Amino acid sequence: MAAVGVISLLAAAFLGITLGSTPLSFEEIRLAFINGFDSSAGGRIFLYVRLPRTLAAIVCGGALAVSGAVIQGVLANRLASPSVIGVNSGAGLAVTLCTALGIFGGWQLSLCAFMGAFSVVMLVSLCARKWGASRGTVILLGVAVNSLLGAISDAVVTFFPDVGVMSNNFKVGEFSSVTYERLIPAAILISVTVILLLTLTNELDVLTLGDENAKGLGMNTSFMRTVFLLLSALLAGCAVSIAGLVSFVGLIVPHGVRRLAGSRSSALIPLCGLFGGAFVCICDTLARTVFAPYEIPVGIIMSFLGAPFFVFVLIKGKGGHSRD
């Protein structure tokens, strides 16, 4: 499965770089590396448009997919994902506030997005544990949190009209305005976070067994749960700081990977990173080529795919069928 994931990611990256309103050939890209990227129009398009956009799609897709897999494991809820339970909205509100204050990229934006995401995921986790909430109640809580944070973001846009210029595309998620200034700090944080998660796969597997079993094996469940939620919030927050509120990646990809490779975290996390990056990269390529010369935000395609999938999983769970 790892080989399939790597091949899928490389193929998606190749299509993302070469396809678009101005197609780029492999020869143009090769000559740009030899003669300099500013020596031709194709070289400039590759360096300043296609490359950052493709990298952003891969990084964000992988981050959101891994974040969703971790959140689902920690909350023991396969319907949970960063977009469904309000984590993305928390990061989005933080990004909106930063933009209103004149922060448009860099470490500050990524860290503020993380703080917003972490606050929401901790709130949902604590409420679920305190009230013994069912998985349906957790989802309803996420819907309420999404609505509240969305209303606050709209209020900020009302008082700071300049923020509204980027507000619409940000709400649905898009990669057309990605810059290296916004991408690089977030990508570094995401890479470090995924590496940390890969060192904690055994602990995540133990935690998913349930609190009683985990405590019986000597685990401090409260501490480890907080650590995993912190790391998953960091992934989601950084992704939102790059692309906006890209939805349903953290729901669709972990479900698909579990079907193919099982739920063992040592395989689940890296495969979610590979397939999540490939999935979002392909969706972004479709978003800017299928309706050419028009381009639609990738978040619209993700919503068309994710909403029916979410309903399917919800109905399947209520119907008492076996869970993946």
Describe it for me?
48% of the residues are buried. The chain has helices at 2-18, 26-35, 41-75, 87-100, 107-131, 135-159, 164-172, 180-198, 201-207, 211-216, 221-243, 249-261, 265-289, 298-318. The chain contains 14 helices and no strands. It has 324 residues and is mainly alpha-helical.
Question: Nutshell version of this structure?
Answer:
The protein is mostly helical and 324 residues long. The protein has a single domain, classed as ABC transporter involved in vitamin B12 uptake, BtuC. It has helices spanning 2-18, 26-35, 41-75, 87-100, 107-131, 135-159, 164-172, 180-198, 201-207, 211-216, 221-243, 249-261, 265-289, 298-318.
Key words describing this protein structure:
324 residues; mainly alpha
Number of domains as seen in the coordinates: 1
Low-confidence stretches: 319-324
CATH homologous superfamily identity: ABC transporter involved in vitamin B12 uptake, BtuC
Structural class of the helices, strands and pairings? mainly alpha
Number of strands: 0
What are the SSEs and their pairings?
Blueprint lengths: L1 H17 L7 H10 L5 H35 L11 H14 L6 H25 L3 H25 L4 H9 L7 H19 L2 H7 L3 H6 L4 H23 L5 H13 L3 H25 L8 H21 L6
Helix pairs in contact: 1-3, 1-13, 2-3, 3-8, 3-11, 3-12, 3-13, 4-5, 4-6, 4-11, 5-6, 5-11, 8-11, 12-13, 13-14
